[in-house]
Give the backbone structure.
Amino acid sequence: MWQGILERVKERRRFAWIVLAQNAKISSFDGDTLELSFTNEKARDSYRSTGIDELLNHVVNEDLKLEWKVKVSVARNPKIGQQILGATSKTRRPGEWPALSVKSGSVQPATGQEEEPQLVPVAWPPVRKPPPPEDFQRIQELWPKVLDEVRKRRRTLWYLLSHGCKPVGAVGKKILLGFDSEQSRLAYLSIGADKLLEDVATEILRFACKIEPVTLSE
């Protein structure tokens, strides 16, 4: 999920993605609060001063609809970040990906030999199963959110979809998008925005859907 969050940040602002990907690691997660550990104070201050914190919160809370709080800290020991990175890169079953947190008091002052910091697992929340794609009523309820996200990315497409166009049915993973006229349907196809609409609908509806434009009978 963290890699998915980073990819979404990358789409919005590449500089923010670079700062997070190169300097921030997950240090703990308790189901409500995600704590990121930065490699140094300079990276943490850059995260706050350049508005990356606001962008990350928007992606987590608004785009992905995750009710998480995001906290940041600075790693006391560089080895901690390395161990966290190595541990989270292992393959785990869906729904059982534990983030790791540094056990309080595990890092001791240097006394000739440095003790390795101990990492304790924190349970990852269960994966929510997506609703069946044939739930047409749910598609209708969430379609305004699909249009709102389209408006942020491509206003021309949003205007076309907002006038004389609506979902009229669903067959499996296919959503039938009805246009009031053949001219409007051809205009939709001509601007080459079908992939963008499918990507947005997949994010909002939470299943890999396909859009099939159709002309409504008068």
Remarks:
- The mean pLDDT is 76.
- DSSP finds nine helices and eight strands in the chain.
- The two ends are 45 Å apart (CA to CA).
- The longest helix spans residues 136-153.
